[in-house]
Write a structure and sequence with these properties.
The complex is a heterodimer of chains A (283) and B (314).
Chain A: E1 2-10, E2 13-21, E3 29-33, H1 47-57, E4 61-65, E5 79-80, H2 86-100, E6 105-110, H3 112-123, E7 127-134, H4 154-157, H5 162-174, H6 187-194, E8 198-203, H7 207-218, E9 232-236, H8 248-265, H9 270-282
Parallel strand pairs in A: 3-4, 3-6, 6-7, 7-8, 8-9
Antiparallel strand pairs in A: 1-2, 2-4
Chain B: E1 12-15, E2 20-25, E3 28-29, E4 32-33, E5 36-41, E6 48-53, H1 58-62, H2 64-76, E7 81-84, H3 101-119, E8 123-129, H4 131-143, E9 147-151, H5 157-176, H6 182-192, E10 194-197, E11 200-203, H7 204-211, H8 215-218, E12 225-232, H9 239-250, E13 254-261, E14 273-276, E15 279-282, H10 285-302, H11 304-313
Parallel strand pairs in B: 6-7, 6-8, 8-9, 9-12, 12-13
Antiparallel strand pairs in B: 1-2, 2-5, 3-4, 5-7, 10-11, 14-15
Helix pairs in contact in B: 3-4, 5-6, 5-7
Classes of the chains: A alpha/beta (283), B alpha/beta (314).
Chain lengths: 283, 314
């Protein structure tokens, strides 16, 4: 296993990243995308560093990156959930895939990184797999702009007086008849699933939010890889408090789950990855 | 850098606006590989380099933006600067439960040697915040460095450990509704050899070594220049920092205490990015700027004239 730190040029700035490669030829690449609360490329409690080493021992390369304005990257810090840094991630992934001679990749995301992960999966043909870590809330993958039974988007509700905003928000979340609808995903989730990307939701929220997530997942259009096991799976993780990655047991579950999911969903060998690349080229 | 490294050419970048180059290194520190960043001026560097020592536990993450910024600004002013992940942190090879205070001090000394070899710097200063300041002070003491810059350094390890355990107990209560005092955590530490403090594995051996830290006692021969910065809401001088200044002066050094007053002083070393209406904002930008400005001004006044004279003489 070897770490390769690098600076990736991006629109006049430089994105810091570390690529971890296995001793043998890699069979795929995994991209790690954390939230925007100041966590650097290693993530809180070094989750990404730890997962990268596990993946390398399974023959999978990975890249963890600092967003612009964070960690060792240059530039100004600026984040909005509605404008995730997909271009930054795409720039890093494209460069690393090219340098390693790989096509297939998976992406792991948490908080704004989860939204970025689906943005990346929706924008690329070779994203085989997404592991979306939702320790507390569904917000990162929820389409809050309305749709489904929504009567008023969040952005509209916030301008109403207090009580009206409260009921508008309830109407938006529960639907006109007050029933509990499934989660209405951001469009990138449907696009990725339809395209055949396998998706894991590693969920640590309440039972109620798990039911919403499950109902939303059932409503997703299944893609071409839907034979056998469902391409969308929900696994549980223990989480507590205001930071989703306590206690130590939670961290272990995250690392184990990411390693297991990527082992299952990425090419089984470097030869398999090469064959897939050749067949895609021939097509 | 080896020829088979497909990422070799991307190890560094230049920022012409700041007039610096930053280079990723993968040095062997405290028994294993880690990742470091060397920041150097594009023009001729002063023969005076700085090693930045990070703090402990979650403070390492929370203080990193400040450390990155001060490294770039010092490099822009002519000083080569090295920052690195001690073992158990960031991209280092060893696991988190191998992090220890003494290995951080050892790592800082090895980083100083690397900085001198890489840049030709003949004089070294150590800079750190909170427990990173304590690491910096002990590294400077060990190798008789030329300078020290300490931001809110921890003077007594025992009090720092008590605060860590108290924080862990509060988190237990807030997140699991389980009332657990510091003494319960201490008991658990005694029985199992490790406790989970806010998601960070704290080992008994580390608690014992940190509890034994007494900076006033351990500084006995450092004779370089020191800047100690207190971050305060009220501007009232901390007695323990005044004693530290006295100690540094009594062993032959030149030391000054400066106070940066800021309404968010209590947040120093804590989470600095907060969310509002789907947008994240940095709440400590001006506090960081004040600290960096004070430190840079002190460096240029106290250290650079000598360095520049030597550079001209050479």
């Amino acid at each position: 296993m070897r770490d390769h730190p690098l600076f990736v040029p991006f629109r006049g700035d430089h994105l810091a990243a570390v690529v971890t490669t296995p001793d043998e030829t890699a069979r795929g690449l995994v991209v790690f995308l954390q939230g925007a609360g100041g966590a650097t490329r290693t993530h809180r409690y070094r989750l990404w560093t730890r997962a990268a080493r596990r993946l390398a021992s399974d023959g999978i390369a990975s890249v963890r990156m600092d967003y612009r304005g964070i960690g060792d990257s240059t530039g100004a810090y600026a984040f909005e959930m509605e404008a995730p840094p997909v271009e930054e991630a795409l720039t890093v992934v494209t460069l690393v895939l090219d340098r390693l001679g790989l096509d297939a990749f998976g992406v792991v995301g948490n908080c704004i990184g989860a939204r970025t992960a689906f943005g990346l999966a929706a924008r690329t043909e070779t994203c085989r797999s997404v592991a979306c870590i939702l320790p507390m809330a569904l917000g990162p993958v929820e389409d809050r702009g309305g749709g489904g039974n929504a009567t008023l988007g969040a952005s509209g509700a916030k301008w109403l007086p207090g009580p009206m905003a409260h009921w508008a928000s309830r109407a938006r979340r529960f639907g006109r008849l007050g029933g509990r609808p499934g989660l209405h995903f951001i469009p990138e989730v449907s696009i990725a699933v339809r395209r055949g990307t396998q998706v894991l939701f590693l969920h640590g929220g309440t039972e109620e939010s798990r039911q919403r997530l499950a109902a939303g997942a059932r409503a997703l259009p299944m893609g071409t890889s839907g034979e056998g096991a469902s391409p969308v799976q929900i696994w549980s993780m223990p989480a507590e408090g205001t930071s989703g990655f306590r206690p130590l047991e939670t961290q272990r579950v995250v690392v184990d789950s990411v390693a297991e999911w990527m082992d299952r969903t990425l090419p089984v060998s470097a030869a398999d990855a090469g064959a897939a690349r050749q067949s895609a080229g021939a097509a | 850098m080896t020829t088979d490294d497909p990422f070799g050419p991307l190890r560094s970048y230049e920022d012409s606006r700041l007039g610096i180059r930053e280079i990723f290194l993968v040095p062997f520190v405290s028994g294993a590989e880690t990742v470091a960043v060397l920041s150097v001026p594009l023009g001729q560097a002063l023969p005076f380099g700085w090693v930045i020592c990070h703090s402990f536990g979650m403070e390492q993450l929370y203080l990193q933006p400040l450390e990155v910024e001060v490294a770039r600004r010092l490099a822009s002013a002519g000083f080569p600067v090295l920052r690195f992940h001690a073992q158990g942190y960031g991209d280092s090879a060893l696991p988190t439960d191998r992090a220890s205070f003494r290995s951080q001090v050892e790592g800082a000394i090895q980083a100083a040697n690397l900085l001198m070899e890489s840049t030709g710097a003949s004089e070294i200063g150590f800079l750190g915040a909170r427990l990173g300041g304590t690491v910096a002070a002990l590294a400077a003491e060990r190798i008789e460095a030329s300078a020290l810059a300490l931001w809110e350094p921890v003077i007594e390890g025992k009090r720092y450990v008590e605060a860590l355990l108290r924080s862990g107990a509060v988190t237990e209560l807030a997140s699991r509704g389980r009332e657990q005092g510091e003494s319960d955590l201490a008991q658990q530490l005694h029985q199992t050899g490790i406790v989970d403090v806010d998601g960070f594995p704290l080992r008994r051996a580390v608690v014992e070594e940190m509890s034994g830290i007494d900076l006033l006692r351990e500084i006995s021969r450092f004779s370089g220049s020191s800047l100690v910065v207190q971050v305060s809401r009220s501007g009232t001088e901390r007695a323990d920092l005044r004693r530290l200044i006295g100690r540094l002066a009594s062993v032959g050094g030149r030391a000054s205490l400066q106070i940066v007053t800021h309404p968010l002083a209590r947040m120093f070393g804590l989470q600095r990015y907060h969310s509002s209406r789907g947008r994240k904002a940095d709440t400590q930008g001006d506090l960081s700027e004040a600290l960096i400005w004070r430190t840079l001004a002190w460096c240029l006044e106290s250290l650079a004239p000598d360095s520049i004279r030597r550079l001209e003489g050479a």
